[in-house]
Design a protein that fits this description.
mainly beta, seven-stranded antiparallel β-sheet
Length: about 180
């Protein structure tokens, strides 16, 4: 028996939050208080994560900075990579920001920036709604700004503890602003 609460997803796509109690070597019961919500085979659990009530415990974040230098051609490269995500029982949201700036003797400075934000809302029976916004700027490709917005509906066709495979459909809008200078 577990003392802690967990987020649990099973192959049918059903999502639960509760404590886990062992029934036998192959089966568990997912419980709230002393009431059993459902029983599941251990091999049918595709996702399990400890559930904490604190906001920070449901948040994942990373930040890294980098610097590379190549003496042969005086190439300096600065980079920033960041990611933040929050997972709730019925939805998840993530955002990321990455930027690379390169300077080199006898060439113009190049810069690449890409960022995105994603929202998924989980529905019953392996269905989900998604929304996503992507941004890209790249001076090496003369792209001032490429923005892509998506909204759609998807379904996991296969969801096991070692693979996820699904389909999604929806609408997207792409807008590009680029420089024609050579």
């Amino acid at each position: 028996n577990t003392v802690n609460q967990y987020f649990i997803t099973i192959t049918s796509g059903d999502r639960y939050s509760g404590r886990i109690t062992s029934i036998d070597d192959e089966n568990v019961a997912i419980m709230i208080a002393k009431d059993t919500i459902t029983k599941a085979k251990i091999k049918n659990i595709v996702y399990i994560r400890q559930l904490k009530n604190d906001f920070l415990d449901r948040l994942d974040a990373s930040l890294s900075f980098g610097y590379n230098f190549t003496k042969a051609n005086n190439l300096s490269q600065y980079s920033v990579r960041s990611n933040v995500g929050y997972k709730a029982k019925k939805w998840l949201s993530t955002a990321r920001y990455n930027q690379i700036i390169s300077t080199q003797d006898d060439t113009e400075r190049t810069q690449r920036l890409d960022a995105n934000a994603v929202y998924n809302r989980f529905l019953k029976k392996n269905w989900f709604v998604l929304g996503e916004v992507n941004l890209l700027s790249n001076t090496a490709q003369n792209i001032n700004l490429r923005s892509l917005a998506k909204i759609g509906l998807g379904k996991y066709l296969i969801q096991t503890n070692d693979r996820y495979w699904g389909l999604q459909t929806g609408l997207s809008f792409n807008n590009e602003s680029f420089s024609t200078e050579t």
